[in-house]
Amino acid sequence: MTSVDRPEAGVLPFFVYGTLRPGEVNHALFLRGRTAAEEPARLPDAALYEGPGYPYAVERAGSAITGELITPAPGAYRELLAALDLLEEYAGPGRPGNVYDRVAREAVRPDASRVRAWVYLAAAPLARRLTASGTEIPGGDWLRRGDRV
């Protein structure tokens, strides 16, 4: 049984923060035509790190990252969930080969309302390496990663 099959998990939107955001390559490949709504949001208590062409999010109290809240189109949820799990190299809860772990977290909309959503965070071994020696993306916004103030 996967975490999505458990009643407490339910059908959740996705919080995306990197190449799945509108205008990015994986949005066009995986999300175009499969969404009912896309809206800006923030993920509290997370930091963003550079990866090889895509970012990694890790848990960190007091920080936040910018992204979008994606609501799947009616009838597209299971197919989209499976496709994103494959893309993010997530094989299920606690699997040692996971690159990312899919977890349910609260995202915050611009009006300050909160919504529970799936988010892919760097799996624990990778998260430890990133926090020890990775390159953090200032401001937690993948789309503004080239901006230096």
Automatic annotation (TrEMBL):
Keywords: Lyase, Transferase. The keyword Transferase applies. It is an enzyme of class 4 (lyase). Gene3D superfamilies: Gamma-glutamyl cyclotransferase-like. Pfam families: GGACT. Signal peptide: none annotated. Its EC number is 4.3.2.6. SUPFAM superfamilies: Gamma-glutamyl cyclotransferase-like (SSF110857). GO terms for molecular function: lyase activity; transferase activity. This is Gamma-L-glutamyl-butirosin B gamma-glutamyl cyclotransferase. The lineage of its organism: Bacteria, Bacillati, Actinomycetota, Actinomycetes, Kitasatosporales.
